[in-house]
Amino acid sequence: MSLRRRYIHLHRYRQVVNVLARYGFGYLLDQLGLGELILRRPRREAPLSPGARLRLALAELGPTFIKLGQILSTRPDLLPADIIAELARLQDRVPPFPFAAVQHTVEKELGQPLEQLFREFDPEPLAAASIGQVHRATLPGGNQVIVKVQRPGIAEQVRVDLEIIFDLARLAQRHTAYGQIYDFTQMVDEFARAMEGELDYTREGRHADRLRENLAGNPQVYIPAVYWDYTTVRVLTQEYVEAVKLNDLEEIDRRGYDRRRIATNLARAIYQQVLVDGFFHGDPHPGNLAVLPGEVIVFMDFGLVGALSEERQEQFINLMLGIIRRRSQDVLRTILAMGVVPDGVDRNALRHDIETLRDRYYHLALSQISLGRAVEELLQLAFKYRLRLPPELTLLAKTLITLEGLARELDPTLELAELAEPYGRELLRRRFSAGALWQALADNLSSTWEMLQHLPRQFQHIVEMLEGGELTLKIELLNLRSLVRQIDRIINKLTMSVVLLAFSIIMASLIISTALGAPGTSLFFRLPTLEIGFGAAGLMLLWLLVAMWRGSRD
């Protein structure tokens, strides 16, 4: 690392630590061993909730931390509901950067002067965010486009911030109780991959192309085209679509669009992405959605997407079917299959809470069941029991909840679960089709054959280790040290009891001898033997009683 980079890193590290301290997180920094970096302890300010203070701190720290907060706002399995609600308010809006910087970046990336690349290029941005900003332009052939240009220096800033966040995650892993439950470094690694995607506009373009290909058979969905000759890592050029944003309900009504049909088309498009294709738009808020004549839904901004493997799709369907069919055992089995239940979880209590969730839907018809709400309640259970859920499931939950909120706003009477049912049936049909069953059989036979091929060699290796005396059997008794301590205490108590009994016999003999008139000339009988003996016996008896009382408490 160069000297300049070290200086930038240290300067930013101090800035992050002091912003967090100023918003009341100094105690956490002390716990992580970073208290010495705090330049000045803040005075008490007007009380704010922890969620509000965290939101303000992340907003002040800039783009990387804002994105981190937005990602965390989709993880109700990690954070309580009040903090989630605050983080959901984080806005990625910043002042635009100068047009001269825009022109410099475009010409450097595309290799030609701006006037040769575009017939027209509007210097006023349509929108500005922390990573980049969007301008409207016209290609030489007359096609209307939008050009997204990355903010100068943002890539370097994000890299420095990610290094700091990685460091904080490692410290939290070692020094906090939650580090024994959650793998913070893995979470930051997932976040870093997401940020790298945000900084690579070619990846966003590929996301758009994949969604367009998947939805090609749905005439009620439109994905803007990507102009690859005008697209690089830092510049993205897409087709400009003149459409009405879904949050502009007045304009939708003025144009006479059918709200119910809009909501239906949107729901079917998302259900197809989730339940059929396994690749879905991860941020379908109203600003990223628009509608064309004929109630055609336009998706925009493909920086955040979710991908579900066939296994994850099946697990999601099993979760939903387990709730709908009132089979809590199926829900619990699916959660266990995800491998997300840490050791020490009270599975009986977890099953009881799942049954409570099931009973909540027991008397509801399918049309009345909210898939988004059901997943959200499962995520709340995950937070309660510290279950480690896969991040794609939480992103899916956010997508479904956003969809249901939009659908309710467009048409509160729309029954979304009924629209989802055909896609769920299609997924089940594909799972149990002859081709899928044959493929599963072929995969299992292949794995079994491979195992059988290696079995003779492995068996021979075991025999060789036995003959050479190299094979050792390791037996680990759980809580062995505690068991040895308990046995040791029991033996001490038994020994003390025997000693006390023997001492009692001796004292009894002395008392009898004294009573029978033992010779008083003996020095032994001239001492206060009885008093000393009774005192010693009393102390030993008291020790034995205390030891027995402590043992009963253990």
Automatic annotation (TrEMBL):
Q: This protein's superkingdom?
A: Bacteria
An example Gene Ontology molecular-function term: transferase activity
Q: Where are the transmembrane segments?
A: 490-512, 532-549
Arranged from A to Z, the UniProt key words for this protein are: Membrane, Transferase, Transmembrane, Transmembrane helix
Positions of the ABC1 atypical kinase-like domain: 89-332
Q: Please name the CDD domains in this protein's record.
A: ABC1_ADCK3-like
Q: Which PANTHER family match?
A: CHAPERONE-ACTIVITY OF BC1 COMPLEX CABC1 -RELATED (PTHR10566), PROTEIN ACTIVITY OF BC1 COMPLEX KINASE 7, CHLOROPLASTIC (PTHR10566:SF113)
Per the similarity annotation, which family is this? Belongs to the protein kinase superfamily. ADCK protein kinase family.
Q: What is this protein called?
A: ABC1 atypical kinase-like domain-containing protein
Q: Supply the gene name.
A: ubiB
